Amino acid sequence: EVWNPSGKYRVVSTKSMPGTRWINLLTAQDCRVEICTEKKTILSVEDILALIGDRCDGVIGQLTEDWGEVLFSALKRAGGTAFSNMAVGYNNVDVSAANKYGVAVGNTPGVLTETTAELAAALSLAAARRIVEADQFMRAGLYDGWLPHLFVGNLLKGQTVGVIGAGRIGSAYARMMIEGFKMNLIYYDLYQATRLEKFVTAYGQFLKANGEQPVTWKRAATMVDVLREADVISLHPILDKTTYHLINKDSLAIMKKEAILVNASRGPVIDEAALVEHLKANPMFRVGLDVFEDEPFMKPGLAEQKNAVIVPHIASASKWTREGMATLAALNVLGKIKGYPIWSDPNR
Ligand code: DGY
What we know:
The chain is an alpha/beta fold. The protein is built from 12 helices and 13 strands. The chain folds into 2 domains: 130 residues, 3-Layer(aba) Sandwich (Rossmann fold), CATH 3.40.50; 198 residues, Rossmann fold (3-Layer(aba) Sandwich), CATH 3.40.50.
């Protein structure tokens, strides 16, 4: 699909993206926009090489693609200087290879913070109240009347939410769980989440002034403290060498038997095979997963576990956010083509 065929700068998007604002932005600035219409979901390096072709000024790519030496060198040869991931995470991008070939890299933070945090909150609730299991039970026609023990789950109020990685998304999630469900907070991050701490303190004072039990916060000295103390744990780190399999057999063993674990960050942060074994051995332990170690696949056995809520990497999938991500990705590429610093450079 081609927009503004006579445009001076050739910008390729490896996927169709929501909305038209991003296309309008580019075409209004003399860009010819080419959108790949290939039907298969995940493009190979060869597919993308063909898209880059002999001349290409910039590319908007996706987190399912492997942006390394081969693609960045090809982009340079084609005269390209700009690449943007349509994602905040960029573990699929070898930024040093991009730097080596003089290609600026952008990502799309900010616009997906609340949407992603809302999905993590939804997974927390779905796991706590066994929503998916109960839904399947209804659809199977198994409901034959109210029972005192039917789908009994966990009350969140007064329990402790544990956040591992209290950056933009982790902090937004924490606020939702604290304000929405009056949970106490324990978090682990290399950096102090000062604004989050101030929020919990102020909210705690507000509750107290209204005669309610105040909420509390604690910054954990180690991740183990979060694993040991929290009732609901949500993972929000970036994926790199230090966070690969952060949650493994040993860390799962530390968690409470009835804990809930949520992951809307990146799949390889959890050792998924170890998680499957843990879910099998601990039916009261529950997970809410948006991401998987080897997407689009799941480790054998995961789909059969009733104590797992699983959705297909949709944390940022609200219309507003996806249009915003597309717009930021276009701005990143356009900025660089026009000689400005890239809008959002993960190196900065
Ligand atoms: C991201 O942006 O990194 C998400 O995984 C997709 O929105």
